[in-house]
Amino acid sequence: MGWRATEYPLLLGLLLLAPVVFLLPPLPIDETRYLAVAWEMRQTGEFLVPHLNGATYAHKPPLLFWLINAGWLITGVHAWTARAMTLLCSALSLILLHRLTLRLTASAAAARLAMWFLFGAIYFATFANAIMFDVPLATCVLLALHGVCDLADSRVRDRTRRGILVTGIAIGLGILVKGPVMLLDIAFPALAAPWWSAAPGMRGGRYFKDIGLAVLLGAAIALAWAVPAALHGGADYAHAIFLNQTFDRIEATQGMSTHARPLWWYLAIFPLMLLPWPLAIRGAWSKLSALGNQAAWRMGLAWTVPTFIAFSLVGGKQPHYLLPIVPGVALMLALAVERGALCVRVGLTGIALILLGAAMALLPHFPLARPLLAYVGEIAPAWGIAVAALGLALLVFRRSLETPAWPALAMIAVSLLVKLAILGGTGQRYDLEAITTRIRQAQQDGQPIVHLGWHHGVYEFAGRLTQPLVALDSEQAFNAWAQQHPDGLVVTFYRRYRFRAAPIYAQRFRGGEVSIWSASDALASGIDPAIAHMPEPGEDAPED
Questions:
Q1: Domain boundary assignment for the chain
Q2: 133 against 261, higher pLDDT
Q3: Omega within 30 of 0 (cis) for the link into 503
Q4: pTM of the model as a whole
């Protein structure tokens, strides 16, 4: 394809990310959990209310699980099906951003640049094939903003009707992907449309009436699932899906929820999510003022700045919560570069990759202070050398590579190399086939088996389990169970529950070990106090 290959960002990016779809196993704790929920849907035929380990699962709406099951109808049951589905959503996001940029700028060059800026942002590249909710959510946000653009152009009545349908359907799908946060992701660009829209004769009153109709349509789509699910799932499930998952995150500043972090946290994290662009973008920032009357620039500002502030005010914070606003940053950067206000320089990106690669290559030679990170030393130095070589190529050929395509391709390649490094070095710590085979066999043989500590469903999909693996929450609960089931087995990956007795099976798992003991041996030996105080490799990882 030669040098003109950079005109095809979608094709090149997908080719780089495709190997991980088929090679990388599901990563505990999150990816294995979501596959377990989808697997339980398939096993039980219960598609209305998601379940995990036999209990209702209210942490996420069902659309991702439905999509995975739909994929399994075509491909059979494989983990790569879910990764491929997410990568397809990533491709749709890039196409939708291309079309949105073209609509707002009338520039094919800016539209192509926007794809590079989005695909090249390291966090988007990393999550592009992850079994998570945030890329499908970003797809819904981009689709909704296309509908908003239709509504903002009041000159064409057919476009208004289409806008209500597109915006409403996208809102409904977004809520079914990840809940009411969808409304926050589109609220500010939608409300600010009279400010950023370049459509002549836009009438705010009519526009807001149409937006209201779209929101009602989206709510109706979401409620078409939520109301029957609440009635079917019971009072606790209804309370969880309508209240807990939204208000817990808002109230996290008061210590009432998970992922509570300080107000400034996103200011530190967001630039890292956008790499390499904070290193690669250069120019006279004063020239940006000339873009202030451009519809694309104004929409980008309305999309990113107030949404960023709103998420910062919410107590519960995770980096991927900001993923749906990264396309807004890409839109603004594309306009600024296309209009000459900013430009791309790859030198610092090359230096950063050389340093990263050197650190990866040298890491196995240095003992790490934290035991939970010690397994990183299992990664072969060759992967770090490959990353450093990539950075060196950017540095040496920087004069001929100063377009967004090359640092973007470099970051996508880094994402691929790091994931392959995990697969080649520490991937055995995520391969649960051996231990889940033993768990499944015990269940099939009718041998009592329990897990000490909550297991997050990590075994369910890998072992294709057809019945729940009971989780006990304390040593006292296990002692009582073991006395009743002396012929039973106990499984755990928690250090605080490691017994003095020798396990009948053990394997490395994440930063520690997962083991199976005979219940009678474990009861007789008791927990080893010398290990119980050590940090956990997966300390009750909270839902994201």
A1: 2-344, 347-428, 433-532
A2: 133
A3: no
A4: 0.90
Rounded Cα distance between 464 and 84, Å, is 20
Given a contact cutoff of 8 angstroms between Cβ atoms, the answer to whether 288 and 339 are in contact is no
Section 102-123 average pLDDT: 94
Supply the pLDDT for residue 253. 44
Pairing assessment for the beta strands 281-282 and 343-344 based on DSSP bridges: antiparallel
Predicted confidence at residue 420, as pLDDT, reads: 85
Q: To the nearest whole number, what is the mean pLDDT of the chain?
A: 87
> Rounded to the nearest 5°, which phi and psi values hold at 431?
-90, 105
SS3 179: coil
- Which residues are CB-neighbours of 412 under 8 A, at least 6 positions away? 12, 13, 16, 17, 119, 120, 125
Cβ of 253: how many Cβ atoms within 10 Å? 17
Q: Measure the CA–CA gap between 17 and 523, rounded to whole angstroms.
A: 48
Non-local (6+) Cβ contacts of 171 within 8 A are 140, 144, 182, 183, 186, 214, 215, 217, 218, 219, 221, 222
Q: Which residue has the higher pLDDT, 332 or 287?
A: 332
Q: What pairs with residue 450 in β-bridges? A: 490
Distance of CA 167 to the CA centre of its chain: 23
Q: Is the dihedral of CA 37, 38, 42, 46 positive or negative?
A: positive
Contact 350, 392 (CB under 8 A): yes
Digit-coded pLDDT (tens) for 184-199:
999 999 999 999 987 7
What tens digit of pLDDT does each residue of 200-227 get?
666 668 889 999 999 999 999 999 999 9
What are φ and ψ of residue 535, in 5° steps? -60, 150
Q: CA 226, CA 238: separation in Å to the nearest integer?
A: 8
- Residue 104 has a pLDDT of 94
Q: Rounded to an integer, what distance in angstroms lies between the CA atom of residue 168 and that of residue 220? A: 9
DSSP string, 331-344: HHHHHHHHTTS-EE
Q: What is the DSSP letter of 242?
A: I
**Distance (Å, whole) CA 350 – CA 276:** 10
